[in-house]
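Input structure tokens:
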């Protein structure tokens, strides 16, 4: 006998793993946290998104051997010049930008 997957199996597993589940409200479309979801087939559920972590920092330009690139010694700015964006769930680097 072939088993039929449950409609919300991804969300059910995520909830069992301790993640927050949200339900979409009709007709507004807003998402609300569901501490005790019933996983009704008539509702739309999702795992609550975890926001990315963004860090802005000052990067000093040095060669692999530790020496400065030509002209780097003249850059005494303390303003942020690098923005790193990490996935809020996995911690993986998503994007690096020179700003």
């Amino acid at each position: 006998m072939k088993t039929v997957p449950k409609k919300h199996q991804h969300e059910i597993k995520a909830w069992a793993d301790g993640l927050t589940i949200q339900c979409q409200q009709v007709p507004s479309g807003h998402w609300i946290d569901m501490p005790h979801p019933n996983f009704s087939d008539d509702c739309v559920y999702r795992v609550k998104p975890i926001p990315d972590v963004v860090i802005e920092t000052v990067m000093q330009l040095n060669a692999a051997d530790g020496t400065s690139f030509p002209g780097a010694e003249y850059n005494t700015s303390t303003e942020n010049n690098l923005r790193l964006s990490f996935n809020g769930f996995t911690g993986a680097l998503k994007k690096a930008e020179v700003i």
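The chain is about 10% helix and 25% strand. The first helix runs from residue 9 to 16.
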